[in-house]
Fold each of these.
Amino acid sequence: MKYYKQIKAALIVAFITLICLWLYGCSSFTQTDSKKSQLIKTAVFKNVKNN
């Protein structure tokens, strides 16, 4: 019981750190590179001439 406040504070800091790392790590799973065989939207409309 002597170190209860210190242990509680350390657990809270560790929990917040784990949540931040988990949220930061999720962005790498949701980002994808465009495939080489697919057209990019800017390339499709790049050479359009207005008449």
Amino acid sequence: MKRFGRALTSGALGGVLALTVGCSGGGAPKAEERVSASPSAPKTSSAVISIEPGNGSTGVRPAGALKVSVQGGKLTEVKVAAKDGGVVPGTFTADGSGWTPAGDLAVSTEYRVDAHAVDADGVAAGLQGGFSTLTPGKGAGPFDNIADGQTYGVGMIVSLEFRVPVKDRAAVEQAVAFDTGDGTVVKPHWFSAQRVDFRPEKYWKPQSRVTVKYRLKSVETSPGVYGEVDKDQTFTVGRSRISTADASSKQMVVQEDGKPDETVPISAGASSPASQNTFNGTMVVMAKEGTAVMDSSTVANHEGAAYRVEMPHALRLTPTGTYVHGKNVAQSIFGRQNVSHGCIGLYDGPGDGRSDLPGGKFYDAAMVGDVVTVKNSVGGPVAPDNGMSGWNIEWSKW
């Protein structure tokens, strides 16, 4: 069988050879026949692709370092993907000579780049590369005043603070987004290089749901300092409860969704000395502290006799020590005299107070984020950065 195979092959080849010689008339092939019979050499594209940073680069900055370009041609496709499979979106220049990512890259991440282009004759070219971004050596240490899954009052302001001063405020603003579900616009306001607050134009809508999306991890907040945090936090807005305390009439009107207005006798801050005046303006409940110690040594520019007393049912309004709290003194004072050291006092029982008296009732019904406005006090206005008092800034200036 092996010999038969070889003989058959030899005969076949001989037949082909004889046929070819016969067709050529016995002469040599023409020049054009020789050219067409030889295979075409592959053409080299005139398009030259460049990828920055170069292949194998490490410690690459997340912002502005990645660029793909071509000379002598037009880019047709650029794919950039992280090692974990995440794809980086980007945009081409109008003439197709360049491509850049749509946003910053992630820190501490490996990327692969696959770029393709064609020259004027349509001949394709390709280039691949890879690099890794830097691992931050220093973090900005951001922290806020909200907790995931909690319910807050309609006056809640989201306050974001940084342990390291922020230089690139615009980058931070772009990295914080609010999903309100109803189109409510939320804007930032910087009180310092380390604090930015966020709120809507008016109080939140009761029963709404708000998700704060932080994408700060790869944001260079200051030279060599990165934001560290990528996370979502969702909170719910509860019922509306707004209290207006009139230091002149010594009455506080409480308005709550679905309930009749309630008027509660109060005792506001004393008229003198000035350090005991109650601030005017809108404040927001920051914390429910139970029984709190009121200490004159913690009050800036305190005047008058020193004091250190415990007050029940304490709702903090400002970091500087303004509260709505229970007060265990004669009931006849409330609605008639302002004898507080700057707070709004409500009649309450001894010790930790009583839940059936005005101080305890107001405390039990309150939640962080509730609004308390003081008017007609002899004191000055509350500073907008003193707690969540940013509602005192007009929206046009926020």
Amino acid sequence: MDTTTMTGWWSCSECAVEAELAVGATNGFQVPCPDCGGVMVEQWQWDAAA
């Protein structure tokens, strides 16, 4: 599976900030929240439009 074309929707478990991030860039890493530094949690993934 090519994860470079996948996108994920993430939200912060502490302050509820939401972000759309490339799955290839975040795969296997803990993503910090840009606002509070808490842990971002992936909600879902989808394929990028062709």
Amino acid sequence: MTRELLSTGDDGIARCGWVSDDSEYQRYHDEEWGSPLHGDDALFETIALEGFQAGLSWITILRRRPAFRRAFDGFAIRRVSAFDDAKVDELASDSSIIRNRQKIVATVKNARTILDLVSANPGELDRLIWSHAPSSHRRPRTVEEVLTVTDRSRALSTRLRSIGLGFVGPTTMHALMQAAGLINDHAQGCVRGDQLEKATERLST
């Protein structure tokens, strides 16, 4: 990851320093990363993909996300929960995704656990995750303020582990909190971060 707080693309837009000149990476940063994300299935997908990302770069996952969505039936919790051993074997040999059997098995197990959680109470995963969003958050002003884990992400990790989820460590959950907009962690000076900050201010007035 770059050690620069901000980078300016050929289009003249100031973005977070981790964004490369890859057009899809820039689109993801400008349109998705840090935008509030809700819905049990959508958050299940984010948990799964952040888990697959562990040890890899996010751009690797982003480029394969369409393949992941095809392989995991759009990350519909109920559908993934029904995957059997034969399906796991099939996924473990699918070169279009990350062929890590342990992570594949964990994703199916997580789907089953989450299905138990949300069947009687739709939206429960959404509520559980968003209950860990801080009431306020200061965007990083220096490279040193760009964190990879926080007390909030540790608490979220502990809570999700307590209900039986795997691959939800505190670093992975911090990445989820950033991606799903529980915090606006765009660097100070990032155009997209400013847009999200203004949107939040409008909603609170």
